[in-house]
Structures are given as structure tokens and as C-alpha cells.
Amino acid sequence: MSTSTTSSCETARVLMQKIESKTATIAIVGLGYVGLPLVRAIRDSGFPVIGFDVDQRKIDALNKGERYILHLGDDFFSSLKADKHFTPTSNPKDLGNADLVLLCVPTPLGAHHEPDLTYVFESTKTAAASLRKGQLIVLESTTYPGTTRDEMKPILDARGLKCGEDYFLAYSPEREDPGSIGRSAQHIPKLVGGVDDLSTDLAMAFYTRVVKSAHRVSSAEIAESAKLLENIYRAVNIALVNEMKLVLTDMNIDVWEVIAAASTKPFGFQAFYPGPGLGGHCIPIDPFYLTWKAREVGRNTRFIELAGEVNTSMPHYVIERTQHALNEHSKSIKNSKVLVMGIAYKKNIDDPRESPSAEIIELLRDRGAIVSYHDPHLALFPAMRKHRVNLSSVALTPASVSASDCVLILTDHDAVDYSLIGQHAKIVVDTRNAMARVPADHLKCEVVKS
In whole angstroms, what is the distance from residue 442 CA to residue 409 CA? Predict the structure, then answer.
């Protein structure tokens, strides 16, 4: 056995002992919707945790025990403040104290739907600046196949340490489902693939001690591709039901009842639901990571791109339906008061990332509508990469509803009183079938399903 092989085995053995004894310190880079739930899972499993973020406001909030992500709850933030085994920091040098560094940073799209790996590159450089022998670096962000090996590894190797001997590198994609009961990070299986066998061994040893189950794959590229497949599967099926909605609506057939009927089949069918467009940090973005990478090998992903076209067209369809509904009541969309219900990308959370609500509000304004919104979880419409809506939530009252020419439901939060809307609205354009929960005798307005 060569000296380098002996050294790598010893380095891995020492780190493995730390993982098995739960004395390894774990650093999370990025304390947002992915990083913070992972902090909770790791902390609850008994590992000491360092939470790093370049946003000092998040660090200050954590030090004060102040909640900045709704679905995690006040108790979680107050418990973090009191936990001596959790250290929030904005000092990148603190990453040198960690044995494992997990990167949980955004992977958005550029102006032309190309992958924007700026956050991955910057966080990798930050980790590289304090990289030391015996560390394991894991990327959790969704990205195209080859990112971990071909993009991150050269940055880390430039420090002079050898991957697989001095330090270790793996990929384990996040699978967060914010706001869904029973789907916390601890209970969602993890995929784990390293750039070499030792890296995979170490990452598996860690994740099996943190989550209910972890599934080993043969490489980082397999894990990267599997994550894309998961999200593309959803994007394509959502596009299918969105297109079904367009066709069936023109036939005066209720797509929601059709989906419910098809769902009675116990095999070969999984229900997906139409909406005003795609939102969130995964489904609207991740398919384009594969379409971009596919061009490098001379392939066109026509099926995926068609699904993207269908889904990105939905906000315009919502505007058409809203305009038609107003016309039926002898109202022009220009100067009409439209009350938008919900700006989060899904129900019961405070996450507006990539929400179609932003584009829909801008389209309404472009056509001269006077727009307001109500969202029980988002008091302010935050600035987004492509949109500046600059609105704050109004109270949901009989007066605010009756003063509107149209109520447009874009997010079906449970905390909204839909009976109040049904009793006081003039017109409701419902993109989520939310009004179906209102008893017929409480409906005193027209409901247009969109």
C-alpha cells in the first residue's frame, strides 16, 4: 500500500470516527428554506452545528431568536437561540472549525434561462478558503450533472489538497417540501453520491445518522441527475394538467372533477393539479438546467422545453380569464379593482420565490387594473430578481372584498376565509379550486374556475 493510500485511509478513518461518535462539527452554508430545516435535522440528531450566511440580517435574527421562515415556527427559532451547540455566523473563517461543510445555496436561472451557478461558485470559494485536511464538502443545491466534480472540485483542489485523500467531496440533493405536514428534512430519504468511494462512505455515514433513510448511488452525477428527474417529472405532469385545463374549460368541463375521477384508479395514475403558473425554487427552474447541459452533448430536450412553454404561459391565460369574467359583467379590466388572494408560490408558507403572482400582478397593472393583495403569511411583497411589485397586504374584510370588482385567487392558503369572499365578492376567478370548499348557500357571487 502506498504512503498516500495509507494517509488517505487514516484521514478518512479519523473523520469517520468523528461522524460515528457525533463529535464532528457540521457547518451549513446558506440559512434559508433549505439550510435551516437541515440545521434542525442535524441538531436534533446530536451533532454540533455552525450556521453560516452572508446575510447578516439572518444571523442577527437567529441570535435574537426571531422567526424569519414561517413554517418552521417560533419554537424552533427560540430553541436555536438557547442552544449552545448551534453557532450562527457570517464570518467565513468559522468554516475552518467544521468537519463537514454542507452548501445549501440558490441555483437560479440567468436572463436567457441559462444556469446561474454564482452562489455555488462563491460558496465553494468560501469553503476552499478555510479547507483543511480531513474535511468533507457536500453540495445540496440542485444543479446539472457534473457540477460537483467538474466545477467545484477544481476550486477546492486549487488549495493544494487532494480530493479523496486529504479532503472529500459529495453531492446529496435537498428534497424540501415546505409547509407539508410529516415531510420534515428528517423524514425525507436522502440520495448520496460522492466523487469517489471514500467520499460516498463518509457522506452516507453522516446522513444515515441524520435522516430516516439514505440511498447510496454510484456517483455524484447519478445523484445530480436523479434530482433533476424528480423535478422535471413534476414540471411535465403539471404542464399536462394545465393543458388539459385549457382544453376542458373550452368544453365547459370541470378539470378538477376530472382529476378527482381519474384519481379513483388505484394504479397507473398520480394526481397533479393545474394552477396559475409554476412557482418555488425548483420546478420552474431545474428543468432548464438539464436542457442547457444537454446542448453540450448535442441533444435537444423538446419534451421538457414544451412543458416549460405550457407552464410559463399560464399567467397570460389567467389574465385572459379575468378579463373575460369582467367583460361578462360589463367591466373593462382597465380601472377595475382586482384583489389578489395569495402571493406565496404554494399554500400555507411565506415563500414567494418564482411565484406566478408577481408576473400576474404586473400583467394586470399593464392592462390598467388597480391591484391589491391579501396574504396572511406575507405582509409585504418582497423585491424579486425580475419583479418589483411594491405592495403590502391589505386586510381581508367584507369592505375590502365588496369594494373589489374581482377577487383573483392565486394561492389557496388555509388561513383565508373563503366563505367571506363568497358572500361579499362580485366575481371570483379561482385558479386553485379554493371556492369548492365553500357551501353552496354561502356563495352569493359568480365563481369562474381558471
Answer: 17
